[in-house]
Amino acid sequence: MKKLKRKIIGFLVVIALLAGIIFGAAMFVGCTDVQLHTKAKDGQIKVACVGDSITYGMSVINWFKNTYPAQLGDMLGDDYHVLNFGFSAKTAQENNVESYRATKLYEKSKKYQPDIVILMLGSNDSKPYNFTDGKADFKQAMKELIEIYQGLESSPEIILATVNSGFYVHGAKEGDYMYDINGENINIINEAIKELADEYNLTLVDTYAITKDHPEWYKLDGIHPDKNGQTAMAEAFYEAVKSLAK
Question: Which of 59, 120, 174, 183 is deepest in the core (most CB within 10 A)?
Fold first, then answer.
């Protein structure tokens, strides 16, 4: 009986080790939605990066260092504390089951009481079954998000970002990119985002313009930029964040 128990324990240990290795590998290549949040130090300027899988860094190799929020934190240095609140497949709109506002991460982003919020949602809103009510509803949803974050006790500055570009790859449906993301709807959504930046006098980072001529950053699926694309976005967000201090 003791020998059997030892074998069972040994088997369970091996399974646990394998599970840990698989989970660690999945995180390394950005294939989970797990977040590793640290606590800000006194005096640090807190930056919340709110978005979907682009912000999360889905499929980015060495996810711990190469997502745009991770790179932005390194660029800004110790005076800033940057957290990644990206959640894959989520939308700005609430008329579907994938609403960002229905997640615990959204609540955590508010509880964080950021000084700056980088808001980049819209790619999943572009899916035809999510974009049923068009530009007006998307714009209203983003207005609500902007005002919710502006209304936090910390009164954060908001940086709006357009949806980054997508590219057609083999296997995508005709008229769509991968995952049913729709290019024409992205253009409409980006118009709404630019209008909101003007209406609310917010800093705008045009990630679409940054990425539209770089299909080489999208080799995996035409939707999620690799480390180089994430770096280009991080550099643009760095300039936007630093401009707020002037």
Answer: 120
> Are 55 and 142 contained in the same domain?
yes
Contacts of 145 (CB under 8 A, 6+ apart): 92, 100, 101, 119, 121
Tally of structural domains, the chain: 2
Q: What would the mean pLDDT of 6-21 be, rounded to a whole number?
A: 43
Q: State how beta strands 203-205 and 80-86 pair.
A: unpaired
Place of tokens 């190469």: 66
In this prediction, residues 47-69 reach a mean pLDDT of 95
| 8 Å CB contact between 86 and 119 | no
Helices (H), the chain: 2-28, 53-56, 63-66, 68-76, 104-111, 134-150, 183-199, 207-211, 227-244
Shared domain for 60 and 99, answered yes or no, is yes
Q: Is 18 in the same domain as 98? A: no
How would you label 226-238 residue by residue, b for 16+ Cβ within 10 Å and e otherwise?
Answer: bbebbbbbbebbb
Structure tokens at 52: 């979907």
